Structure prediction request, 125 residues.
Amino acid sequence: MLAGCSSNGSTSNDNPVVTPSATTTTAPPTGTSSPTPNYDAVVNLTVANGKVTGDTPRAKVKKGQRVAIIVKSDVADEIHLHGYDKMVDVTAGGTATLVFVADIPGVFTVELESRSKELTKIQVS
Prediction:
């Protein structure tokens, strides 16, 4: 299953796969490095000057995990996880955390919705 608004829908194996170290639980939404018991996996992303850094281009999580997507952004927008239809607003210069249970297998796009800017893909298996 592939979900997305503006991507070309490619699921080629040519794309590098990033497995977040947070799969074993890491940084809380505050950005500190202490463990967070509320999440099984954390995907950290930063948007600055139109570029995305962090757990890109694809983060792998296991089905059933409670996942936090933490986005620090220099622009205000809506963070949208397609396929799960989950969203959260982020303010310019702020940090937003989108939490979901990875209960649908597939590959799902996370994007800045109004800018149609892909941040990462989440692979649930």
In short: Residues 6-35 have pLDDT under 50 and may be disordered.
